[in-house]
């Protein structure tokens, strides 16, 4: 039986091929040229000098939790979280499993000043062009999703388009591969994307293996100020937080509580 991740990737490949076949490349290149990337890694590094740098995730639903936030207005959420002190935003663009979309990214990116991550399952370079055209400043690359050669091609494409890369790992072997890719940010996802189990202890264990030169991001399952503090003490600079913010009537108030 295929894993959760494999099912998502299979669907992503079908959707990307369809969008690519229908795409107007000249219009996409024009939209991409109209957006100047805002330095995702730099924003995180600068914020981490004075406090926890949070990447606040706009997440309406997820495969592991189903619907998380019924009333989901991406621009209102993005501007509220920016005002509350988010260093960056993560905007889910997968439609089927997360009820996100590229249109959300386009609208949110235009409404905020802080950098935005296109949060999706990147499987081919066309998605990098889409990302910048929709106003992304960074993309996510998931080590568990692709082989090294595909990852290198995607990283090179991101560099060509001036986008930073958050490279996501879940264990030591993936971390060793990720460090070869030489990305600006390395994220340790406490969620196993094959089983959906979440263990923050895993991120804490891997923290000491992350080199100084990268922005160290802890991802998933962060539910309290104590979690942020524990991860910070372990060595993380930045914290990707979705569900805990999205479940609150006021995500901005929750973010203030998390970062103090
Ligand atoms: O969140 C999921 O259920 C999920 C399932 C399959 C692949 C990826 C998934 N999540 C992506 C993420 O990494 C999280 O959205 C992100 O780290 C924020 O996590 P959380 O704060 O726990 O919402």
UniProtKB/TrEMBL annotation:
Entry EC no(s): 4.1.1.48
GO biological processes: L-tryptophan biosynthetic process
Stored InterPro entries: Aldolase_TIM, Indole-3-glycerol_P_synth, Indole-3-glycerol_P_synth_dom, Indole-3-GlycerolPSynthase_CS, RibuloseP-bd_barrel
Limits of the Indole-3-glycerol phosphate synthase domain: 5-258
UniProt catalytic activity: 1-(2-carboxyphenylamino)-1-deoxy-D-ribulose 5-phosphate + H(+) = (1S,2R)-1-C-(indol-3-yl)glycerol 3-phosphate + CO2 + H2O
Keywords of the record: Amino-acid biosynthesis, Aromatic amino acid biosynthesis, Decarboxylase, Lyase, Tryptophan biosynthesis
UniProt pathway annotation: Amino-acid biosynthesis; L-tryptophan biosynthesis; L-tryptophan from chorismate: step 4/5
UniProt signal peptide: none
Group of enzyme by EC: lyase
GO molecular function: indole-3-glycerol-phosphate synthase activity; phosphoribosylanthranilate isomerase activity
Gene3D superfamilies from the UniProt entry: Aldolase class I (3.20.20.70)
Matching PANTHER family: INDOLE-3-GLYCEROL-PHOSPHATE SYNTHASE, TRYPTOPHAN BIOSYNTHESIS PROTEIN
Family: Belongs to the TrpC family.
UniProt-listed NCBIfam families: PRK00278.2-4
Name of the protein in its database record: Indole-3-glycerol phosphate synthase
Origin species: Terriglobus albidus
Gene: trpC
């Amino acid at each position: 039986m295929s894993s959760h991740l494999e099912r998502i990737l299979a669907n992503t490949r079908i959707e990307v091929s369809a969008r690519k076949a229908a795409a107007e490349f000249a219009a996409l290149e024009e939209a991409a040229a109209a957006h100047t990337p805002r330095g995702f890694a730099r924003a995180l590094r600068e914020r981490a000098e004075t406090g926890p740098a949070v990447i606040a995730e706009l997440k309406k639903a997820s495969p592991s939790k189903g619907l998380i936030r019924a009333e989901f207005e991406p621009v209102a959420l993005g501007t509220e979280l920016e005002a509350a002190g988010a260093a960056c935003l993560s905007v889910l663009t997968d439609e089927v499993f997360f009820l996100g979309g590229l249109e959300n990214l386009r609208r949110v990116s235009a409404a905020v000043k802080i950098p935005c991550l296109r949060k999706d399952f990147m499987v081919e370079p066309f998605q990098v062009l889409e990302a910048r055209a929709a106003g992304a400043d960074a993309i996510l690359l998931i080590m568990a999703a692709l082989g090294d050669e595909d990852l290198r091609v995607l990283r090179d494409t991101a560099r060509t388009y001036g986008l930073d890369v958050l490279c996501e790992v879940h264990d030591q072997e993936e971390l060793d591969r990720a460090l070869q890719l030489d990305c600006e940010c390395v994220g340790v996802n406490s969620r196993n994307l094959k089983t959906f189990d979440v263990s923050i202890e895993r991120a804490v264990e891997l923290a000491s293996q992350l080199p100084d030169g990268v922005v160290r991001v802890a991802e998933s399952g962060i539910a309290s100020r104590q979690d942020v503090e524990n991860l910070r003490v372990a060595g993380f600079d930045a914290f990707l937080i979705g569900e805990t913010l999205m479940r609150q009537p006021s995500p901005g108030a929750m973010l203030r509580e998390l970062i103090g």
